[in-house]
Every structure is written in C-alpha cells, then in structure tokens.
Design a protein that fits this description.
The chain is α/β, with parallel strands linked by helices and about 190 residues long. About 40% of the residues lie in helices and about 15% in strands. The protein has a single domain, classed as Rossmann fold, CATH 3.40.50.
Length: about 190
C-alpha cells in the first residue's frame, strides 16, 4: 500500500490547461486513496494545483522547503519541514516516501528524472519513479534520448524501477503494487 508519495511538477505560473487537469485528477486520487503528498510546498503551477486538489480530497500535505525560498508556500500544510539547502531537501524528501511521481513537464530532460535516484535516504532504498505520460510527454523524451545517454544515467538495476502510465489511477495502482526488481548476484563456489 502506498502511504507517502513525492510528486514533481511544473512550478510555472503559466502551466497549461492539460497539465493543470492532470494535477487536479491526481490530487483527487491521492485524497481518495489516503496517500500523503510530499512536495516542495509551493502554490505555483501544476504542483500548486495538485496540492490544492489533494488537500480538498483529504490528503495530508507535507511540504519540504529550503530556508529562504522566494516561492509562495502553502499555509495549510499538515506538516512543513524546512531544510538548509537543496542537498538536504533531496535527502529529506527521499527519507519520507515510498515512491516518486513526475507530472508532465516536471523534467525537461531524462537526466533530471533519473538523477533523483541518487537523492534517496541513506542507505538507499529501491524506490520506483512513476512518470505520468499524459499526451506522450515522457514517451517523447524516451524516444529522443539516445541509448548511450540513457545508459550513462540509468543503471541496469534502475530500469526496473521506472513505471510509466498514461492514466493517473493506473500509475498509482502500479506504484502501490511495485516490488523491487531482482538484481543479478554473482556467486563464487570454492573449489
């Protein structure tokens, strides 16, 4: 069962109607499924819309923000944690959640998406990354990325942690059912 989910999205005040609709739908689903939203506490863009819908639907909202941020922050967070810098922010988010989800527009390049696996808490956990592939946003990124570029940023063990779906309900279901992939372990017999 998925209890806490970190969500990344567009923080641009000019988020498009499709991005905002996807954020509202996901927010409602989080509330309906009693999943806590963990995010950067902003009120802007698709992330702000997501938090608004999730809060209205009954989801707990945990905001993690860097001290001194200039973005407007939600005042009605269930919990607000402030950290010193971006590195501490990444570590804090990773320690709080079972999975990560990216709305369309959250990452402009795959490198940013795959880099988040290095943010996990210590010791690292095998958390999945869900990509909400509305309007083929992430499919387009995956198609344009060269295999060497993907190989450079994604370890073989991480490929199985990537969950992609076009529908928010399906993506949440698959993240909730996620089991870490088995990794190959070489054993040596003593002769």
């Amino acid at each position: 069962m998925l209890k806490r989910l970190a969500v990344f999205g567009n923080r641009n005040e000019l988020a498009g109607p499709d991005e905002l609709a996807a954020a509202h739908r996901l927010g409602r689903l989080l509330g309906e499924q009693n999943v806590t939203l963990v995010y950067d506490a902003t009120t802007l863009g698709s992330l702000g819309a997501l938090a608004e819908a999730a809060g209205r639907a009954g989801s707990r909202l945990i905001g993690v923000s860097v001290i001194g941020t200039t973005d407007p922050l939600r005042e009605d967070l269930t919990e607000h944690r402030r950290v010193e810098d971006q590195r501490a922010w990444r570590t804090e988010i990773g320690s709080l959640v079972e999975a990560w989800l990216a709305l369309p527009g959250a990452f402009g390049a795959l490198e940013g998406a795959f880099d988040l696996w290095s943010w996990a808490a210590s010791p690292p956990r095998e958390q999945p990354l869900g990509l909400l592939d509305q309007a083929d946003y992430y499919s387009s990124l995956l198609k344009t990325a060269s295999d060497p570029a993907v190989d450079r940023f994604v370890l073989e063990s991480q490929r199985g942690r990537l969950v992609v779906a076009k529908d928010a309900a399906e993506l949440l279901r698959r993240l909730a059912e996620y089991r870490p992939p088995e990794t190959r372990r070489d054993t040596f017999d003593d002769d």
